[in-house]
Structure formats: structure tokens, C-alpha cells
Structure prediction request, 223 residues.
Amino acid sequence: EDQVTQSPEALRLQEGESSSLNCSYTVSGLRGLFWYRQDPGKGPEFLFTLYSAGEEKEKERLKATLTKKESFLHITAPKPEDSATYLCAVQTGSNDYKLSFGAGTTVTVRA
Amino acid sequence: DTAVSQTPKYLVTQMGNDKSIKCEQNLGHDTMYWYKQDSKKFLKIMFSYNNKELIINETVPNRFSPKSPDKAHLNLHINSLELGDSAVYFCASTPSTGVGYTFGSGTRLTVV
Prediction:
């Protein structure tokens, strides 16, 4: 069974203090690794898809990277509006397209 | 607005009752899903339909029955509600490629 583990569970940052979130995975046949942002009371919002080791993607202050065993979400010079829960999910090489999620990292950025 | 919309947003009900949650997407996607998010925020797949055909049926009690009248709608009916059914239920959709999930805003179900 696919396993996705995210760390840390919670992260408190000062505005401007860069940090990284980790997502380690154990799957058979990775089809894609996804990062989502979830704000309280809302559904997950898509951030990135990574398909192969070595791939990197960026969006504003966020950068996602992928190796064969884990993915990192780097937050550079965060602002209070980056406060959210960040979810990692994997999609494996089956035909059903389901996502297997980690438990998430809740990031709080203080001004 | 193009979106995945769920109703109701909040649902409070007593144990033993039967309730339904509705989901509609106007994105033209072929595949729709129900996910359950428990109190620890862990999201887990429940069901998936592709063009009205059931594709995924994870280990979910048979008190939960999805229904897809057409490819734009996927409803979830729950019989004999239990305290442990309290959670946030998310509907989602993707095109037939399986890439580009769009989630609804969730239905918070509280069973008392």
C-alpha cells in the first residue's frame, strides 16, 4: 500500500524566515507527486505536480523538488498569507487516478 | 464560475439518520471522486466514478452509497449515521487523464 509521510506536522515561522517541508513516500510505480495548499474551511488548492526525480517547479515564494524517495516544498521569505496546511499526495501507476495523501504540514507565518 | 460545488456546506444530524450530500462540476471532467478528511486532516479516497461508472470503491461501510446520475453529478448517500462518520467530505473531479484535480469546498458532517 502507498505510504506518504509529511514532516514536520506544524511549522511556525517569522515573516521572511525561509524553511522547507518534507514529504517522503513509498509507492510502487509513481505516476506523479502533487502539492496542495489547504486553507481552513476550504478544499485543497493545487500547487504543483512533479513526475520524475530531479524535477523542480516554482511559483512565487514556493519551490517544489523531487527525488526517488521524497519531495521538498521550500518556502522562501514567507509572508503571513502563506499560512496554510500544505498537503502532499502521490498518484501511482494504476488506472484509477486516486490520490494518496500525507497528513499535511500546518505552516503559520507571523508578521 | 467553473467549479466543483457541494451542498450542504454544513450538516448536523443525529445518530441513525439518513442523509445525502450533493456534488456538481461544470468543468466538463469525466471522473468524479469522494474523499473523506478526518479530524487529523488526513484525506482518504472513498469512491470514484468515470462517466457514471464506479471505478474505485475503497474499504467503506456499505452504509455509504454513491450515485452518479450523469457525469457532472456525484451524490453521496449515508444510511444509519454513526458518530464515527463525523468528518469533512470533499468532492473532486479530473479530466480522463487523471491530472488536474479540482476539489469542492467540502461538507462538514457532524453526527450527534
Observations:
- The CA atoms of residues 16 and 81 of chain B lie 5 Å apart.
- The domain at 4-111 of chain B is CATH 2.60.40.10 (Immunoglobulin-like).
- The longest strand of chain B covers residues 43-50.
- Chain B touches chain A at residues 4, 31, 33, 35, 40-45, 48, 55-56, 90, 92, 94, 98-106 (CB under 8 Å).
